[in-house]
Amino acid sequence: MNIQSTINKEVFIPQGERLLVAVEVWRRQRKRMSFLPVGAKDYSTFICVSVTNTKPHQLLITKVKQFGGSSSFVRRSQWTVEQLQQVNGINPKKDTPEFDLVFDNTVDKWVTCSSAEKCMFVQILNLRRYDPPKKTEFTNCHSKLTGGQTWHRAMGGAMGKLVQTMNVSVGKRGDTLSLAEDKTVELLQKAQQFADTAHMVT
Predict the structure, then answer these.
(1) Structural domain total, the chain
(2) Rounded to an integer, what distance in angstroms lies between the CA atom of residue 98 and that of residue 24?
(3) DSSP 30-93
(4) Closest CA to 55 of 129, 163, 134, 137
(5) pLDDT band for position 148 (50/70/90)?
(6) Is residue 141 part of a domain?
(7) Neighbouring residues of 136: CB distance < 8 A, sequence distance ≥ 6
(8) Which of 79, 91, 118, 136 is geometrically suited to a Cys-Cys bond with 83, CB 3.0 to 4.6 A?
(9) What sequence ranges are listed for the domain Exocyst complex component Sec3 PIP2-binding N-terminal (predicted)?
(10) Contacting residues for 199 by C-beta, under 8 A, at least 6 apart
(11) How far is CA 72 from the centre of its chain?
(12) Is the pLDDT of residue 87 over 60?
């Protein structure tokens, strides 16, 4: 079982939610505290986007941690998409793994392990089906992150179609929920592969 599937089962399914994407992130810091050894970290952090099973469906952004020595994942913080004021892609002209999430009461500055993971995260966060009354501002984002026309012409909208398919799968009910979960994980993996390939050719 991969990490995304495990996080989904442990953190989101018990709360009546479905995980759409989870990316491991690290904080961007200007300087390292002198008393911490290089590379020291006793936990892993994942930023996740999930959707509620009940209608009207709602997108949620959740910070999940896995502490050293433990195989379990725990929910630390959660925001509704309405509380997300801005997604800052840092550089609209260069594909980078850094991004900022600006909420009503806090600003998180993150970096992922690759620009492809950042791309998948922002693409899913920008799902049109779940647009809230209060729109989130996407600024300094490369066109591929928000589905710009140039990106869709070049790639045929393949990522967008994958995201839409995941979206439909997540909305299933009853006996089809397990199948939808498996399909969602499979499509997430395909989306990741697509993003990696796209990154190499851009």
Answers:
(1) 1
(2) 12
(3) SS--TTSPTT--SEEEEEEEEEESSSSP-EEEEEEEEETT----EEEEEEEGGGEEEEE-S-SS
(4) 129
(5) low
(6) yes
(7) 81, 84, 85, 86, 87, 125
(8) 79
(9) 40-130
(10) 95, 114, 115, 116, 119
(11) 20
(12) yes
Confidence (pLDDT) at 95: 87
**pLDDT per residue as tens digits for the range 76-85:** 999 999 999 9
What residues make up the domain containing 180? 3-30+42-201
Whose CA is closest to 167, among 19, 7, 4?
19
Q: Which residue, chain included where needed, has tokens 């904080």?
A: 27
Residue 190 lies in a domain: yes
- pTM for the complete prediction? 0.71
How many CA atoms, within 13 angstroms, populate the side-chain half-sphere of residue 198?
Answer: 26
Six token digits for residue 57: 């469906």
Does residue 37 belong to any structural domain of this protein?
Answer: no
On whether residue 47 sits in a domain, the answer given is yes
Q: Which residue has the higher pLDDT, 118 or 40?
A: 118
Q: Tell whether the model's pLDDT for residue 147 goes beyond 70.
A: no
